[in-house]
Records
---
Amino acid sequence: RFRIRTAFATPASRPLAAAGVCEFLPLPFARGGAFFRSEPFDVVFVRLSPPDANGRCSFGWAAGYTPELVERALELGIPIVAELDPARPRTQSGREVPAEALFRACPATSAAAVDTPVPASPHAATIAAYLRELVPDGATLQVGIGSVPDAAVARLDRRGLGIHTEVLGPGLVSLATRGAADNSRKRVDAGLTIATIASIDPTVHAFVDQNPAVAVRGADEVLDPRRIALHGSLRCVNSAISVDLHGQVDAETIRGEQVAGVGGQLDFFRGAGLVDDGLRIIALESTAGGGRHSRIVRSLGPGSVVTSTRYDVDYVVTEHGIARLAGRTDEERRRALIDVADPAHRDALRNP
């Protein structure tokens, strides 16, 4: 009998959670390796690219925890069973797996999942215009999961941008392919786009496949706050489900149900907080449900969780403007956040 633990809830895991066979594990992405070093396991199942001419298998579009898990298994003599997928893009991580180290290998018999395209937010251009005020030429970008930040950064008209991110999505790839993000001014890994996961998107996969200017590395490298802090002019742009008037961010739950996870938001915000010129930005549409529900709320609801605390967010950006939270009092924050809420909901936010 199997029981499943996941650090990131998805549409596939939620029915399993409702059936009582999948539990959520609150685990920052950068701490995955520490978890595997402290927890016993018996076998490792991975999906890799077939071996190259040197007999080494690539992690492909997703490294994440897997390099640490594989290395721990090799250290302890734990068997590694791999599906080899010829459609998996081949990427460089510096930690490719020797084919002879695999206990068993078999060809993948199912196609990899593909992200369902999400229509671009009608407010993406407006949010991008506000983000532009916070992102100078030469900034290094991290962009979290979410259609709003991804679509907004795709529209940035800046030059000399760098990419050091958890997820490499279509928006960042657009910046790279049109030359806006050439990584030329990065203090760390100059000339390289760095990610730990690439979106399951054909355009993204074509971009990363055997691209010497891209490295898909383990989360222990990409999301280490100490390494993140080495970047100058760092701009971390993440999304949220709701933000309360204190500036607390819930990026994981809806009406008490776990629908996502912390991902890299916490790790990148902690790293950016160590950089004098780093900014931690939440970008989101001001409403959900066709305008019925405000994403700016008086307080987080029952069953909500705090993904990023009020001490970890510098700016909140919606289609209605920029709310600066850094260096602001509680009352100043409250007013700033109400100002970027949808006008139809502002009176309810002002009045108890």
---
Amino acid sequence: MSALPDWMRPPRAEGWFAEDLDRLPEAPRHTELIDGALVFMLSPQRWWHGHLVTMLTVALMEQAPADVRVGREMTIKLDDRNRPEPDLLLTTATYDGDRTWFTPDEVRLVIEVVSPESAHRDRTVKLRKYAEAGIPHYWCVEDEGGAPVVHVYELDEPTGRYAPGGIFRGTLERPVPFEISLDLDKLTPPSGKWKSYGNAEGAGLTRARPPPLRLIRR
């Protein structure tokens, strides 16, 4: 059994603290801290997941008011022992290109796109922790046969818990945290009809096309 690398050993007997994530250059990307434990994303990201997050980012940026910005793959310091990294968030923080995390009071909406390995955390653990931190809006996006389905939650302040705000298929219309209108069916292309060519068109996607013809002289 191989020994753990030094960077995976907590720097103190109490375990990991939120600020430790900024001092772990060897850690994989998207490392989170949940209840003082490091959480890694071990499985490769699905194309569906990445494309959906990109399209959601663009749609929300187009509709957000001037005082709201969209953050992608940024952590939130919920407390000293919890620093999760949602797929997307909406923040009222002043832009600072060097910052690596937000505080809960700067975040108006958190969005998690569920993957097989994150399903339990997204549906239960983070649902509870984001609410306890006072973040007012939470969306949990599920894959339903290739179509995104958004489970919306709103914070009930007297109880400090989220209350269901609806399940949305096809379209999503919400008045909070600002007026949002999304055509969910357009956030992911039909399977088998798109191909990546490594450019920015269509969030890195273009319609599949045949290779160019070449004339060969004989």
